[in-house]
Each structure stands twice: as C-alpha cells, then as structure tokens.
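To illustrate the input format used throughout this study, we show a single complete record. The first block contains the structure-token representation of the backbone; no residue identities are included at this stage. The design step must infer an amino acid for every position from geometry alone.
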C-alpha cells in the first residue's frame, strides 16, 4: 500500500512525461517548451532528488524517476512504457536472446524427431528457453507456419490448430516453469515464453525440505521417493482434479484423478532436477522420466491404486493407505517388486511424436 499511495501522489502528468523518454521526444519539443522547476518531491515524507519540469502550464516528472524513488520497475521497451509494480527499479528492459543468438542445439538431437511443424528451428528455441529459463524468440523461419489468434481473456495471441504440435510439446514440459508460444505485439515476433506461475510458488516452498532430503540418493531411489510422496497425498477420485498447488501445499490427503498424480509428480521431478515429460492416452495421464541413461514410464496413479487394491482387496475410492517411504507394506509388496520404473506403458500414448520431441528437448540424443 505504501508504494500505491506514493505512486498516486506522483503520477500527475506522468503520461506525457513518460512520452518524452520515447524517440518522439524531439518532435514533441517543437510544440511544448519544457523548463526546469525547483519544486521539491517527497516520498513517504522524505524529500528525494527528482527533476521537475513546467510544460504548457503543468508540472511533470519522469516516469523513470518515480520508479526509482518509489521502488517499482519502469522502462521503455521500444514502443511503450512498461511498469512492473512488484519488481525493483532498473530502468532497463529485460534482456532477451535474438534469433541469431540461439545456438544450434538440434545438432545434438535425434534427427528422427524433426517432423511436421517440429522443426530444428522450433527445437533450438525451446531448448534454449529450457536451458536459460528465459523467454526466447523463435527464428524467422517459423513465421510461415506459426499462426496465432487473439485471446481476449488473457490478452495474448494463441496458436491456431495447425500449430498445435508446438503448443503440445510445450505443455508436455510441465507447469513450473511453464512454456508457452506467444506473439509479441511490440516486436511482431513469436516467442517461447517462460513463466513461473505465482500459483505454484507455495508448493515449491512447501516441498523444499523434501527435495533437499533427496540429495545423495541414486536416480532410481529419488524417483521412488517422489512417487511415494505423491501417493501419500492423493486419494484417487476420477471426478476431481487437484493441481500441484493444492496437493503439495499441505500435509494431509486430497482427492484427485490421474492428472493430479502426473502433474504433481512432474512438478517434484523438475524441482529435483530429474527430466520428466507429461504423457496422455486412453483418457489417462502419466509420466516418463530420464534415469540411468534411458527413459522410463512412471504411472503414479497405478502405483497408488494397485498398492491400495492389493493390500486392502477393496475399492481405491473406499480405502487409502498412507505411506511414508518406510512402511512395511510398501517395503514388502512395492519396493521389492520395483514397480516404479516401467518398461511398458500402462496405456497407448496418443502423441508419441510430441513425447519424443519433448524428451529430446530435455535430454538431447536420449531417444536414439
């Protein structure tokens, strides 16, 4: 609230003041004569150094100066003034890679995955975004087939059906961070946008100690512990979807369908540095993970439900046993059977090309 009050006091005439930071400043000066004035400026009762100007009978200050004094980000991005209220002031637009700066990552990948719209240019861009965790522009070669339409609800442009392959790859990479194909209005270029949704930040914080407890374990053991952790927190319920922000921010048990298991498992794998891709088919969702030099399927829903049915001989929707990774039942029936990493899929994969492309994005050359 302090920043909000300060901004309200300082923003008189700021729209015109901000325009003088743009390339049109010289043209505007032909119509208005700006004169420096000695008026003091106070922020929360403290005087700050800030240039003030009298223009056509009104007082003005620079938007950048307000941002610096009050503590919010303000900069000119080439076509508009940008204000970001929850970031500290730098006065500079965020650095983004240019198409020419994106390395040739595709040379390391299995060439068999480059089919249809899943080109080497698409691969290089997404791979760069995954490595840097920075929004990255696609090269000009993709403009011939990337077509977007405006989404009024979110205020961005979305992919039409012919480019859904690209969006499906991005969706398979997971929710935190999320990767999305957008069109920048300012630069008229296609971007692979990287975002850490605030909605999932509490889940990352709540599971921090658990992720730290995996240090020093083998890849296989880490995956088992993550599998158990998710099973402990969900009772299978095909009528309900519980997202990671709900499943992983409490220590009790919630109800959720297979998507709840798959996304929560993928969330934790990424936090632990384990490559993990989302899969779906036959109205079912599960995952594939990279460990011990190869890709394995992990069906956390099946692991939970098979265990419950085996031990209780009852319905998974009527009964649920909670495990902490050392429970005697799981040690006897589950760990010894080593059912976490699977050689065969539980259900037919509906998008094998999408999955292989996503796998290659995370681990180049891993599907050869």
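Output of the design step:
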């Amino acid at each position: 609230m302090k920043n909000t009050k300060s901004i309200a006091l300082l923003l008189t005439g700021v729209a015109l003041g901000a325009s003088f930071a743009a390339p049109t400043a010289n043209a505007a000066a032909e119509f208005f004569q700006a004169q420096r004035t000695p008026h003091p400026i106070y922020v929360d009762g403290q005087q700050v150094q800030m240039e003030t100007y009298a223009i056509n009978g009104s007082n003005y200050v620079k938007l950048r100066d307000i941002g610096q004094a009050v503590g919010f980000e303000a900069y000119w991005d080439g076509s508009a003034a940008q204000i970001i209220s929850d970031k500290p002031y730098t006065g500079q637009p965020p650095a983004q890679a240019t198409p020419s700066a994106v390395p040739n990552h595709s040379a390391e990948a299995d060439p068999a995955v480059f089919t249809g719209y899943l080109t080497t240019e698409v691969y290089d861009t997404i791979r760069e975004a995954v490595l840097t965790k920075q929004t990255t522009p696609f090269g000009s070669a993709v403009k011939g087939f990337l077509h977007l339409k405006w989404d009024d609800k979110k205020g961005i442009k979305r992919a039409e059906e012919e480019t859904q392959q690209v969006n499906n790859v991005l969706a398979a990479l997971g929710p935190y961070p999320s990767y999305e194909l957008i069109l920048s209005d300012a630069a008229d270029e296609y971007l692979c946008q990287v975002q850490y949704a605030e909605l999932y930040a509490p889940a990352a914080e709540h599971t921090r100690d658990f992720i730290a407890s995996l240090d020093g374990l083998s890849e296989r053991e880490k995956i088992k512990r993550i599998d158990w952790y998710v099973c402990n927190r969900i009772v299978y319920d095909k009528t309900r979807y519980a997202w990671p922000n709900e499943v992983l921010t409490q220590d009790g048990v919630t109800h959720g369908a297979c998507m709840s298991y798959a996304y929560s498992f993928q969330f934790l794998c990424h936090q632990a540095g384990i490559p993990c891709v989302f899969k779906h088919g036959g109205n079912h969702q599960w995952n594939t993970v990279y460990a011990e030099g190869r890709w394995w399927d992990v069906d956390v829903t099946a692991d939970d439900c098979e265990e419950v049915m085996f031990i209780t001989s009852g319905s998974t929707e009527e009964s649920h046993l909670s495990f902490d990774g050392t429970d005697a039942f799981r040690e006897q029936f589950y760990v010894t059977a080593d059912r976490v990493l699977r050689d065969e899929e539980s259900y037919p994969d509906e998008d094998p090309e999408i999955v292989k492309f996503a796998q290659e994005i995370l681990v180049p050359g891993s599907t050869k």
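Structural context for interpreting the output: Residues 1-32, 307-337 have pLDDT under 50 and may be disordered. The longest strand covers residues 284-291.
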